[in-house]
Amino acid sequence: MKKKLYAITILILVVMVSIFIMIIPTFFTKGISRVELNKKFDLPLILNDEKDVKLIFFGYSGCGDICTPRLYSLNDFYKALDKKTKKRVGVEFLDISLSYDKTLPTRFAQFFNPDFKGIYLKQNILRDYTKVFDVYFSKSLTDETAYDHTSNLYLVKKTKNKKELRYVYYSYPYDYTQINLDIKELLNE
């Protein structure tokens, strides 16, 4: 009888711990899905056009698990912006794969929206970007054609000769209501 009671107690504890492990991320990501940084940087390539604000996503061309759903949702958000805002806001996809085909990032980004800009980065420049933006990526251990990488969305502002990383959005689905408010705030500064 004591063995059965002990086994049932262990089973209940295992179930409770399993439920706790599945639920706890929900509590930790609520309210902290966005971080304000105000981090100035001076790197080439991004924000080198007429746009004042950019949404930046790091990924790799052909990524189906992380990049594709996020870029589809980013496209839906971007399409909903009014024309005046679109003239001042851009989306840039920075490829982490060091692909030999330098046109692939542009083709991948523009598959989701013709206004999206895809950027190929040489290895040394990519290293500089990953330091500034705190981007993690590595070759996948289970799929030699894939990369494991962060899926954060970054909001960057340009004023005169200054570039500034203002917000990082960590949790997906992204809070596009908050992102829209942040964009309006930056455009009105």
Number of domains: 2
Average pLDDT, rounded to a whole number, is 86
In CATH terms, what is the architecture of the largest domain?
A: 3-Layer(aba) Sandwich
Q: What structural class do the secondary elements suggest?
A: alpha/beta
Number of helix segments? 6
Question: Kindly, what is the distance between the CA atoms of the first and last residues, rounded to a whole number of angstroms?
Answer: 72 Å
Say what the CATH topology of the largest domain is. Answer: Glutaredoxin
Biggest sheet: strands side by side, in what order? 1-8-7-2-3-4
Oligomer: single chain
Radius of gyration: 20 Å
Biggest sheet record: 6 strands, mixed
CATH uppermost class of the largest domain = Alpha Beta
The total of beta strands comes to 8
CATH superfamily of the largest domain: Glutaredoxin
Helix percent reads 40-55%
